[in-house]
Amino acid sequence: MTDTRHTKLLIIGSGPAGYTAAVYGSRAMLEPLLIQGIQPGGQLTITTEVENWPGEVEIQGPDLMIKMEAHARAVGTEIIADHINALDLSKRPFTASADSGTTYTCDALILATGAQARWLGLPSEEKFKGFGVSACATCDGFFYRGQEVVVVGGGNTAVEEALFLTNFASKVTLIHRRDSLRSEKILQDRLFKNPKVEILWNHAIEEVVGGDNPRGVEGVRARHVETGQITEVPCKGFFVAIGHAPASELVKDVLETHMGGYVVTKPDSTETSIPGVFAAGDLTDHKYRQAVTSAGMGCMAALEAERWLAEQEQG
């Protein structure tokens, strides 16, 4: 028999947006339920040093998320280790089906499902995932001590990953399809000054090269975007750092989205195209993508959900 649970406010996602929404929802006496999802704590759990969270000069990403979870629990949020696989937003109460077999129903819903790493989409990349191809330097950098690695990308993510990998690798080659980086200047300065880093400008990854016995990466082929000339770069690890895609699979056919799947919210609001459904954090934010802005949106979502629920009761 399927277990069904009802709550005034259901929060899906456990990054800065979800936990902040939980804190504000609890303080508003809404007794929210928060469903953590596959990756409790979100992207910050695969980040090392966080240097831009107000009040913390430096803190490890996982430690920050442990503190946020503890805060949400302390003010009364019930946090559940489960994963939502389907939503029915066609009628109220809204219905969320979970992997555990439990069905959650709610009067108001906050979506804070975040974003996930983008991949290049190459067959060779897929073949060597977990065998030298990674999207997380902080997860896998340790395995490449004293070896050469390649990072592809040109934004903050790519530069941060490249810098982190210099702690382990003997050489880090950053490959970027343009002739300048999009990352913050302070990060670029650190990168250019690091003697372990070499940059291959105006190149796109053509193929990941490796062996089958044992399976492992041996290098990458990069094509010059103008001349077409191929350069082979030897490496044992290949890190893809080309940004993130919003985790909007649950709602992409139901809620209004744009910019490749980001959920559209009303101006200066977290309201979505369905009344009673609010979205916060990286699921909606294609511009800033910061923990502190996600937390701010989580606050907004909870306050707006509280007001919306009060209006429904008065109506």
TrEMBL record:
<dbReference type="InterPro" id="IPR005982">
    <property type="entry name" value="Thioredox_Rdtase"/>
</dbReference>
<dbReference type="InterPro" id="IPR023753">
    <property type="entry name" value="FAD/NAD-binding_dom"/>
</dbReference>
<keyword id="KW-0560">Oxidoreductase</keyword>
<feature type="domain" description="FAD/NAD(P)-binding">
    <location>
        <begin position="8"/>
        <end position="298"/>
    </location>
</feature>
<keyword id="KW-0521">NADP</keyword>
<dbReference type="InterPro" id="IPR008255">
    <property type="entry name" value="Pyr_nucl-diS_OxRdtase_2_AS"/>
</dbReference>
<dbReference type="Pfam" id="PF07992">
    <property type="entry name" value="Pyr_redox_2"/>
</dbReference>
<dbReference type="GO" id="GO:0005737">
    <property type="term" value="C:cytoplasm"/>
</dbReference>
<comment type="subunit">
    <text>Homodimer.</text>
</comment>
<comment type="similarity">
    <text>Belongs to the class-II pyridine nucleotide-disulfide oxidoreductase family.</text>
</comment>
<dbReference type="InterPro" id="IPR036188">
    <property type="entry name" value="FAD/NAD-bd_sf"/>
</dbReference>
<protein>
    <recommendedName>
        <fullName>Thioredoxin reductase</fullName>
        <ecNumber>1.8.1.9</ecNumber>
    </recommendedName>
</protein>
<dbReference type="InterPro" id="IPR050097">
    <property type="entry name" value="Ferredoxin-NADP_redctase_2"/>
</dbReference>
<dbReference type="GO" id="GO:0019430">
    <property type="term" value="P:removal of superoxide radicals"/>
</dbReference>
<keyword id="KW-0676">Redox-active center</keyword>
<keyword id="KW-0285">Flavoprotein</keyword>
<dbReference type="GO" id="GO:0004791">
    <property type="term" value="F:thioredoxin-disulfide reductase (NADPH) activity"/>
</dbReference>
<keyword id="KW-0274">FAD</keyword>
<keyword id="KW-1015">Disulfide bond</keyword>
